[in-house]
Design goal:
- The structure is a homopentamer of 103-residue chains.
- The first copy, chain A, is an all-beta fold.
- The first copy, chain A, has one domain: Nucleoplasmin core domain (Jelly Rolls).
- Chain A is built from no helices and eight strands.
- Chain A has a four-stranded antiparallel β-sheet with strand order 1-8-3-6, with no helix packed on it.
- In chain A, a hairpin with a 5-residue loop joins β4 and β5.
- The radius of gyration of chain A is 14 Å and the shape is globular.
- At the A-B interface, β4, β5 and β6 of A face β1, β3, β6 and β8 of B.
Chain lengths: 103, 103, 103, 103, 103
Amino acid sequence: MGFWGVEVKPEKPHPYHSDNVEGKLHVTQATLGLGSSTEKSILQCSIGDRNPIFLCSLLPNKNESCSLNLEFDEDDLVAFSVIGPRSIHLSGYFEADGGGHLR
Amino acid sequence: MGFWGVEVKPEKPHPYHSDNVEGKLHVTQATLGLGSSTEKSILQCSIGDRNPIFLCSLLPNKNESCSLNLEFDEDDLVAFSVIGPRSIHLSGYFEADGGGHLR
Amino acid sequence: MGFWGVEVKPEKPHPYHSDNVEGKLHVTQATLGLGSSTEKSILQCSIGDRNPIFLCSLLPNKNESCSLNLEFDEDDLVAFSVIGPRSIHLSGYFEADGGGHLR
Amino acid sequence: MGFWGVEVKPEKPHPYHSDNVEGKLHVTQATLGLGSSTEKSILQCSIGDRNPIFLCSLLPNKNESCSLNLEFDEDDLVAFSVIGPRSIHLSGYFEADGGGHLR
Amino acid sequence: MGFWGVEVKPEKPHPYHSDNVEGKLHVTQATLGLGSSTEKSILQCSIGDRNPIFLCSLLPNKNESCSLNLEFDEDDLVAFSVIGPRSIHLSGYFEADGGGHLR
């Protein structure tokens, strides 16, 4: 359990269900990756064939980090992707199933 | 359960009770949608006929994302709406009723 | 239960204990109200005759929203007030007494 | 229980253990106090004779508020202090000992 | 238990497992250290030989503090490090193992 992190690169959607871990994922932080472009990069989340939802918008040299508070279950079929020129690093942590928070 | 997201468009209030899901909704993030206007967009929440309450104010090219921490019950009759030119994406997650957090 | 919100107007302190609701109040967000003044507005909280404590400082066109994480009990005798020209919208949610979080 | 707040003034460290309250303290918000200086003010926390740790850095007219999420136990011997010209207001809440969160 | 803090210095990775404490660590805040450089400093977290993940990016005189919400278990073999010229202060708190949150 414990720490979780991925780098989501432009034009490379990152499907969550490929992680093969048990338990609930808490995604709590997004940070802009390296690069020289000053265009903003937007993190979005897609579920099946529904329209993607924007999760945050990171502005180089202004706001390069953003707190999130999202929970994903093992069977959520979602994918993270980036609109914009720079990658976005996501971090968070796993919580065990079945009352792991309590015993 | 798991991830929840909607795009609230200007002049199109989004009633929460139309989602037909069971359990408690946590709304945790608001992000400005695409567009070229540099005017700010404000997210507000209305309950019945009371005055709407502003939940956040998003400023293009300055602060385009905002963390929230709001809980809505199944029987809350609220509606989200936007004052301003651009849509606002809301995201969060559902938590099961009846101790789902504990077992 | 569920959503809670008030608009605190300049020179009109809002006593919390007048709300007549049962349970614990979580105040989680403050957002600047409408207006043309570019002076900052500060939200403060007073308890009895002690000096008020500033909870956040909102800057027009720079930072118009602020996440909070405050809990108030039914018998807390506090009042919210604003220093500055524009009102501040507060939002949050109620949590039931007696283990409502757990059953 | 409920709301907690102090104003930490420059050159006047505020020892936490002087508060004489029972239970766990959650410090959740820091806000810059009044003043005309535009120099930044940094909040720091000292434990015994270890080097102080910076908790946040507040910038006048840019970022005057900061969310925190810190917990202190009754027997933590810490002191808050400010580096810079203006005071910093801290706020948060107390949580009862012994499962107060659960019963 | 209670408060935790470290200063992570440039070119001096800080391994978490050297802390020799029991229980879960919550890292909740990052703040830029002193210095005159106006270059940004990025906090990253490494696990084993995987690519490091950026946790936040701090910009002098713009955004010098950042809220985090990360959990680390006793057996997480991670290291924090800084890319950039200035140190980053991390703070948070420990939570006891085995239901310490509940009894």
